[in-house]
C-alpha cells in the first residue's frame, strides 16, 4: 500500500533524531575534548585546530598542528508506557500491549574526530577535519510498547571539511570551510496486523548518500578579549536505498514489498557567538550562545514508487547557552570547567518514542597536560541531566483504506548521560 511505503521511508529521516542525544535534537556536539571540559562555553573564540568545527577562523594563528580525539558516550534511560492504545478497523480500541518499560534503548558508543592545519605563508592557513556531528543508535525490543513507532534506529553522518583561513589585520581573522557529508541510515518498525493478538509485521529500511554544506566565521583578538562568531549552513540530505515490508497478512498482505525508495530531510543551520576573556595570565572566562535553525527540519519529503508525500515534523528553533573557565595551574597543566543549558526543539504535543528528546543541562570538567614541548594530552568528563519528557504521538497505518489502524503512544522518558573524552594535540 502507498501509505505503508511512505511511513517506512519517512523513518529514514526520523532515525536522525533518536532518543536522548548529547545535544538537543539530533546534534552530537562532542567535537573537541577541551570543549567537553568547559561545557562548550568558548569554542567559537578558541584558538587551535580542534576548534575548527565551531569556527574556521580558529586555525589562523594555531601554527602547524594536528588533533585526534575520541569521546565515549554512555546513556542510562528508561521509557515507560502510560496508556498507549491501538484502534482496529471497526472502532475496537485496546491497550497496545507489549513490555511497559524499556531500559537503555540508546546504545553507548564512541565518537571520534580529527583535524590538521598548516600555515601557508604569513597570513593564510589551510585545514582538513573529520567529524561525526550526527551519529546515534537506538534499539527497542520487539515486544516493547514503543514498537509501532520504533524498533532499531541507526544513523551515521561523517563530515569531511576543507578549511581556509586568513589573518586580515593584526586583530581580525576570517575563515571559510566546505563540507562533504556522508549519511548512512538503517531502521526497522513494527506494523500491526488487523487481528488483535496477531504477530506484527515489520518494515526495514536502509539508505545512504553524499551531500554538501559550508561554514564561515571570524575572530577578533582585542587584547585580553577574544570574540568569535560563525555560521554553519544546513545540509539537505537525500538518502537512497531500499525498503522492505513483510509479515502482513489478510487484506493488507498487498502492502508487503521490497522496493527502492528515498527520503529527504535537512539538518539545522547553526549560528554561534563566543567569547574568552583572560582575567589574569592564569584565569580565562568563557561564554557561548548558539542558535539552531531546527525549523529547517519541518518536514520529510518521501519519494516512494507510489508517488511523493510530505510528512510534517514541526521542529522549533532553539538557543543554547554556556559559561565556563580555564585555569592554568602552571606551564604544564590547565584545568577547566563549565555548564551548558540546551533546550529541545521537539514540540511537546508531537513527541515520538523515536524522538523522546527533552531539555538538558550539561556539566563539564577537564584538563590539559603538556607531555612534551610539542605534545599535549586533553581529558574531559561531562554529566548530562535530562528533564523528564512525554511521548505523545498518534500514527495511522494504512490510512485512507478500510484497514486504517491507529496507534496512540503515551509514555514518559527519564535519563541521564556521561561523556568521557581523551585527545592528543601536537605541533609539528
UniProtKB/TrEMBL annotation:
Keywords: Cell outer membrane, Membrane, Signal, Transmembrane, Transmembrane beta strand. Residues 1-23 form the signal peptide. It is found in: Cell outer membrane. Its main location: membrane. GO terms for cellular component: cell outer membrane. SUPFAM superfamilies: Porins. One of its GO terms (molecular function) is long-chain fatty acid transporting porin activity. It is a multi-pass membrane protein. It holds the Pfam family Toluene_X. PANTHER family: LONG-CHAIN FATTY ACID TRANSPORT PROTEIN (PTHR35093:SF3), OUTER MEMBRANE PROTEIN NMB0088-RELATED (PTHR35093). Belongs to the OmpP1/FadL family. This is Long-chain fatty acid transport protein. It comes from Phenylobacterium zucineum (strain HLK1).
